[in-house]
Amino acid sequence: MLLNLLIIVVGFGLLVGGANLLVDGACRLAARFGMPERVAGLTVVAIGTSLPELVVSVTSAVAGHADMAFGNVVGSCLANLLLILGLSAVIAPVALSRGTIRFEIPVSVAACGLLALLANTDGEVTQVEGVLLLVAFVAFVARTAQMGLKEGADEKGAAGDGAADGTAADAPRPSVAMALWLVVVGAVMLKVGADLVVDNATLIAEAAGISERVIGITVVALGTCLPELVTSVVAALRGNSDIAVGNVMGSNIANLLLVMGGPALFSAIPYDTAYNLDLALVAVFSLALVGFCYVGRRHEMSRVNGVIFVVLYAAYIATSVMR
């Protein structure tokens, strides 16, 4: 079992490294073709940090481990909200923008409702329902891109004025070949890492008599959300709290729609109604962020709020293991 644990650690390392390379390459491509940073951040980075969950869930579903696929998604969403965002707020109070409150949080709650509705209608997420989830995700990305491009156009106009005054210079354009190379290498690392994590986590669960559901919402979920953890904590340390919030909410939406819709295209995913509670908790804690806007300083998640979220996450894990 010790060897399996070591292999899982190696797998997580490949997942984090692969995600970083793929995100870096994707962001270079975005910059190369003139995509505004806001669009790249809310779409490319959010999708990129969710790629470990996506690859693990696809691998789990294809291998017939549906519990691990669902557990990975709901476990990662709750880890993003309670642990990662909580730790970010403990490091520095997190600002909650109007865009997050009015758009990203409602979309996240709606995604929870849509996934729960589809999964409970026939006890599984079918290929058709997987397509519906992916269409909803594409609509989210399109809307985000629309808002970001509008903002980017305004920033470009302002930058153009600055350049006319001699205050801006042309920046070198990233190499497309290098960007594509990073994407390919990152994708290969993600695939290998996901295989190592899923295979060895399954062996440990069988040997220890632990359900795949528990392994999915704890070990696998925590491992696959490492990119979000690193991104959000570093952002908080640098004082970029808006990036931390956007990364978490964007990744959760990607998890609920993309990460569950993708695996369903390969095989229908059986659903355990025990996950209804987990999905409800994701929605409730997302809405709690709105409440933080009106407690203490407006539009801010305080350090105290962060501590509460981290404690709630510890309680959730303890309860999940015992039930």
Automatic annotation (TrEMBL):
Listed Pfam families: Na_Ca_ex
Bilayer-spanning residue ranges: 6-27, 39-63, 69-96, 125-142, 176-194, 214-237, 249-269, 275-295, 304-322
Membrane-related topology note: Multi-pass membrane protein
Domain Sodium/calcium exchanger membrane region, residue spans: 5-142, 179-321
One annotated Gene Ontology cellular component of this protein: plasma membrane
Principal place of residence: membrane
Gene Ontology process terms (BP): intracellular calcium ion homeostasis
Domain of life per record: Bacteria
Alphabetic keyword roster: Membrane, Transmembrane, Transmembrane helix
UniProt GO MF annotations: calcium channel activity; calcium, potassium:sodium antiporter activity
InterPro entries in alphabetical order: K/Na/Ca-exchanger, NaCa_Exmemb, NCX_ion-bd_dom_sf
Cell compartment(s), UniProt: Membrane
Xref: PANTHER family: INNER MEMBRANE PROTEIN YRBG, SODIUM/POTASSIUM/CALCIUM EXCHANGER
NCBIfam families, per database record: calcium/sodium antiporter (TIGR00367)
Protein name: Calcium/sodium antiporter
Organism of this sequence: Candidatus Olsenella pullistercoris
Lineage: Bacteria, Bacillati, Actinomycetota, Coriobacteriia, Coriobacteriales
